[in-house]
Amino acid sequence: MTSQSGFTLLELAVVLVIVGVLSAVTIPAFSAGPRDDPAVVGASEVVSLLRSARSRALGRAHPVTLRIDARTRMFVLATETGDSIVEIAQGIVTLPPGISLGAASATTQFRFAATGAARGDTVFVRGGGPAVSVWVDRWTGAPHVRQ
């Protein structure tokens, strides 16, 4: 009689079931983390406005400015055409309850060039936990979030 080494089909099935159960329990714990933080949700609203402003600057080939009043959460999106400034949109930054905006000055301004490059301040989104900061890369205009 010769002996063979290896695993049986039953042993492999048991191991696969154990790995499946562990994956089902641990993977949602990793993916649910920061998105549940209301300050991160508020920061994503600011990022959305910044992306919209950059997109409009690129699309119109004219500078676009986004101004956000941290106290009232009002924003104004305007474009510069020659010597005139034309308002494109205005509204209120939608934030979850208990979340507020902060900045170094009362009105925060981001200016996107026709190339997409930007200059601007930093907006802080505050909630129950640590503040989340939102700013733009000066060369690419891409918004960034730091927790």
Describe the structure.
- This protein is of the alpha+beta class.
- It has a single domain (35-146), classed as minor pseudopilin epsh fold, CATH 3.55.40.
- The protein is 31% helix and 33% strand.
- It is built from 2 helices and 9 strands; from the N terminus they run ααβββββββββ.
- It has helices spanning 9-31, 38-60, and strands at 64-69, 74-81, 84-92, 100-102, 107-112, 118-120, 123-126, 132-136, 143-146.
- It has a 5-stranded antiparallel beta sheet, covered by helices on one side. Strands 4-7-8-9 form a 4-stranded antiparallel beta sheet, covered by helices on one side.
- A hairpin with a 6-residue loop joins strand 8 and strand 9.
- It is elongated and about 90 Å long.
Low-confidence stretches: none
Distance between the termini: 65 Å
Number of strands: 9
Morphology: elongated
CATH topology: minor pseudopilin epsh fold
CATH H-level homologous superfamily name: minor pseudopilin epsh domain
Fraction in beta strands: 25-35%
Please identify, by name, the CATH architecture. 3-Layer(bab) Sandwich
> What is the SS-derived class?
alpha+beta
Instruction: Supply the number of helical segments.
Output: 2
Helix content: 25-40%
Major sheet characteristics? 5 strands, antiparallel
Q: H/E series, N to C?
A: HHEEEEEEEEE
The overall pLDDT, averaged over residues, is 85
Q: Assign the CATH class.
A: Alpha Beta
Radius of gyration: 24 Å
- Give the domain tally: 1
Spatial sequence of strands, sheet with the most strands: 3-2-1-5-6
Outline the fold blueprint:
Layout: H1 9-31, H2 38-60, E1 64-69, E2 74-81, E3 84-92, E4 100-102, E5 107-112, E6 118-120, E7 123-126, E8 132-136, E9 143-146
Antiparallel strand pairs: 1-2, 1-5, 2-3, 4-7, 5-6, 7-8, 8-9
